[in-house]
Amino acid sequence: MVLQRAPQAARLYGFDALDLSAEAFLSCSLEGALLPLQRALLTYRSRRSSGSPLQAGEQDGSPACPCSWEVELPPQAANTICDISIMYPTQPAEATLTGVIFGDVYLCSGQSNMVFKMKQIFNSTEELAASAGFTDIRFTVLQLKTSDVELEDIEPKIPWSDPSQSGLLESMSAVCFLYARNLYSTMLARGERLPLGLVASAWGGTRIEAWSTPSALQACGSQEVVDTEHPEKSNSYLWNANIAPLRRMALFGFLWYQGEANGNFQRDLYSCTFPALIDSWREEFEQPDAPFGFVQLSTIQYGNAGLSYPILRNHQTADYGKVPNPRMPGTFMAVAVDTYDQENGIHPRFKQVIGERLAIAGMKVAYGQEDFPSSGPGVTDLFVSESGFLLFYDEPFTYDDSELTGFYYCCGPLGFCSSNTNAGNWPALAQDEVEADPAGGVVVLALVECEEEGDMVSLAYLWRQTPIETPVWGAPIYSADGFRLPSAPWIISDVPT
Fold first, then answer.
1. How does pLDDT run across 7-48, given as a tens digit for each residue?
2. Is 137 left (phi over 0), alpha (psi -120 to 50) or beta?
């Protein structure tokens, strides 16, 4: 397995009763050099997964109560490899973990596009073969269940493995693994070998409310949902069973791909429930600054007239249009609106593109590498003049309107456009209504006239469920640098005409 590197102290824990004389011994090496033998003491704490108090005569620190044991390991540098034994002073080892390596650990969660397996992506045979040598990336896939109370233990479906072990990588989350593979390769090219541990716990068709803590949902005014027929739709049931048991793990960050199930369920609360989930997970894992990467919603069906997806895409950024932002610090995002896969519908198979984009933004946000971008070109200012609406971007870009200009407008009262789900109220601007200066980072949109004098207009970019028929790389605007990140969909409401 991979355990979290320094400066954090990784933990091992279990649920069998061990005598208080038991200790943990670490026999480690770093870059081939043996390190001095290290020792760590076991501690006990009461198990209160059901919320019940300790009984008479029970106390923390004593194996007499229904306790779990825990070992906080001495912090280890990246690439340290250890054999870790739990043993009594005068007896053989009770248990030994061999070949444990220290690096950065990520928890990957969400719904079906995070579940989507390596064997399902385009060119899967070649991709699996190309991944086999990445043995510094190790992964586990967890069993899924539901619970109405927080649990302490969870079982693996796929035990800790590496890509060289035949057949196991095929069932690993593609987004999760391809992020790690891109990140590892990028780090290695810069002279840093960083092992990565991936814990996959995702469930198809699930809502954010099921993955959220009760306090996060309460803070957003989310409606109470208990679905006895489909427990995975019940509030907090997936948090209780599949995330809460992992809180004692030391980890570096989170990856998330979810939102499709909220397109028509409490959609307009998502700008609260998603940031609240991020805040609460960081708090529960005692990692207030943990990087949190996510994938913006992809596509389903070209020509679909519904606008629930673009609205939810905006809510995924707390309605800022890009991340990180003041409400969502330490977050990074991969845009997926240009990965349309007609044959596979809601599950585009271009996960290599997503893994690469996540890793590029992760290098900037999670690892502080200033020569990497956190996002593609974004609008910083909008001015209205006689010549039109002037959009000023934060960087030069490339522009290709061969399939679409990418820009839309809506006339209507305050708030109408930002929540309207009918594409008919959002006409597209034609080629002769858009003038782009890519090198200067400026786009000029023709002035539009609303029917009623004094009406406000809203402007948007890629404001469709599936705006682009081209399978991939068909959006109008990408960064002009070598990273070629796409400009994310955005909306600017209530612009005076």
1. 999 999 888 767 777 889 999 999 999 999 999 988 877 654
2. beta
**What does the DSSP assignment read for 216-272?**
HHHHHTPPP---SSSGGGSTTHHIIIIIGGGTTS--SEEEEE--GGGTTSSGGGHHH
Q: Where are the domains of the chain?
A: 7-101, 103-365, 379-496
Virtual CA dihedral for 29, 166, 253, 332, nearest 10 degrees? 130
User: Quick check: pTM over 0.85?
Assistant: yes
CB atoms within 10 A of CB 188: 13
Q: Which of 268, 264, 274 is nearest to 294 (CA)?
A: 274
Strand spans (E) along 377-424: 379-385, 388-393, 397-399, 407-411
Domain with residues 103-365, CATH architecture = 3-Layer(aba) Sandwich (3.40)
Hey, how many other C-beta atoms are within 10 angstroms of the C-beta on 279? 18
Burial of 232 (C-beta count, 10 Å sphere; 0-12/13-18/19+): buried
Bridge-partner residues for 29, per DSSP? Answer: 34, 81
Residue 111 CA to residue 201 CA, distance in Å, equals 9
Residues 6+ apart with CB under 8 A from 50: 149
Identify the weakest region by mean pLDDT among 353-362, 413-422, 440-449: 413-422
- CB of 168 within 8 A of CB of 75? no
Q: Which helix (H) or strand (E) holds 278?
A: helix 270-284
Confidence of residue 452 (pLDDT cuts 50, 70, 90): low
Buried b / exposed e over 394-423, threshold 16 CB at 10 Å, is: bbebbbbeeebbbbbbbbbeeeebbebbeb
d(CA 107, CA 292): 10
To which residue do tokens 């609008």 refer? 379
Contacts of 19 (CB under 8 A, 6+ apart): 63, 88
Residue type, position 432, single letter: D
- Summarize pLDDT for 79-134 with one digit per residue, the tens: 999 999 988 777 776 789 999 999 999 999 999 999 999 999 999 999 999 999 99
Report whether 443 contacts 458 (CB < 8 A).
no
Q: Count of alpha carbons within 13 Å of 317, Cβ hemisphere only?
A: 23
Determine the Cα–Cα distance for residues 425 and 493; give it in Å rounded to an integer.
Answer: 14
Tokens matching residue 2:
């991979």
Q: d(Cα 433, Cα 437) in Å, to the nearest integer?
A: 14
Sort 95 into a burial class: Cβ within 10 Å, 0-12 / 13-18 / 19+.
middle
Report d(CA 26, CA 14) in Å as an integer: 17
Phi-psi region at 449: left, alpha or beta (left = phi > 0; alpha = psi -120 to 50): beta
Distances (CA, A) of 305 to 417, 449, 464: 15, 23, 7
